[in-house]
Amino acid sequence: xxxxxxxxxxxxxxxxxxxxxxxxxxxxxxxxxxxxxxxxxxxxxxxxxxxxxxxxxxxxxxxxxxxxxxxxxxxxxx
Length: 78
Hints:
Number of strands: 4
Structural class: alpha+beta
Shape: globular
Order of helices and strands: EHEHEE
Number of helices: 2
């Protein structure tokens, strides 16, 4: 995901479902079409929730990364 440049980042680390998704939804509403949102999280349920929500909401799930600090998810506003 080195080529992805997020317009905004949501820090949802330490939050459990459904809070990472709700925070992502709130921030996505503030972005313009084509902008990328980065979500930082530690809840493994987000690996399923965020791609499914992205598709349902008309956004593009660009992918995710995992490291020792948790997950990074990237969603492009549709």
